[in-house]
Amino acid sequence: MTNKLKTVLQTLADFDERELDQIVNLFKPKSVKKNSILLHEGNISREFYYIHTGGLRTFFISKNGQEKTRYVMLDNHIGTALKSFISQKPSIEFVEAIDDTELLAISHQDFYHLNEEIHSWKNFYQNILERAYSFQNRKIEELVTLTAKQRYEQLLQENPVFIQKLSNKVLASYLDMREETLSRLKSQ
Amino acid sequence: MTNKLKTVLQTLADFDERELDQIVNLFKPKSVKKNSILLHEGNISREFYYIHTGGLRTFFISKNGQEKTRYVMLDNHIGTALKSFISQKPSIEFVEAIDDTELLAISHQDFYHLNEEIHSWKNFYQNILERAYSFQNRKIEELVTLTAKQRYEQLLQENPVFIQKLSNKVLASYLDMREETLSRLKSQ
DNA sequence: CGAGGCCTTGACCGCGGTCAATGCCCGTGG
DNA sequence: CCACGGGCATTGACCGCGGTCAAGGCCTCG
Fold this sequence. Notes:
188 residues, homodimer, Jelly Rolls, alpha+beta
């Protein structure tokens, strides 16, 4: 489990073996059931996750009570409710397991500790931020230029695993459309 | 002009006086006319800007030929076509002066140089990325939860200077609606 | 002064949201 | 093991927000 994590970390920054050991020791294993909430709206995001198996999603609830899924992490991916993790202010997002999930978590404290101790970790974090920024940049592009159908078809092409693994309810909220609309699109 | 820049930099990271001098010396003054293009789609974003007077915007052009404004910088603000600046890959965004503009620009080369030379500059850049991320996060929230009218009213409340300084054409594309819709909203 | 861009206003319409009814699957307890 | 209940998916009918197209007026700048 920690070996896979090391591999992932290495793709994002240049760590030596001693640093990697120091880092992965700070990631604690955790096992959560499907539908359990790891972070509740209003609380502060204090953990950063690596997903071994299963999956998490972050979402928030709009004024009119609808869930809006922002980010999905499946096997071998990393992330958290980043805005609150960055600012250490109360989150508007929930973090929820979309499946029975085995993961590794590092605390915010340890995360920022590493930021001061390990030079490459700053690069790692910079890289995370750059990717998160670019990801959202793309999402905005899609929201303002594509129709519901085009967004669905693009995901189908680029990330079909999402369509297999997510419930229609979650998938629809991720694609920013209603369940009914997604259902109609799926049946062509 | 460089004094104002120093003030802005200091709000984003903890520089000492010598560092500040070293940094601002790398910012070169530039004067651009309204409607001139500082970065063309397809080119690589190689400068990071501080706006002294006037303003810039970044926008891209969608498949069906419409301009979509992502980010606006007015007096005393900083920014650039960030995605391309980060990746040093061709930009899908333009950078355009929305007014006659006096600005200071630092090259990507010098920017990343500072990232290695000055410890606090890494914090500065981290801060920029965190803010850019949070800004976009908010924008996505607004796009998926608010109506055109609500987006306009929110901007009116939180950033009325945008509504005064931007043309309807640019303002509409910033708010992700057509000029006609914005016009109807303004007349209540 | 003329031309071209920008803004406004009107008429129309289609995408996708809303509401409602029904079916289906699955976990839970008797 | 079956009966029941609740959540999820599907389908239909309806409708409203905001996009599209078009025409006309106004302002700016060469």
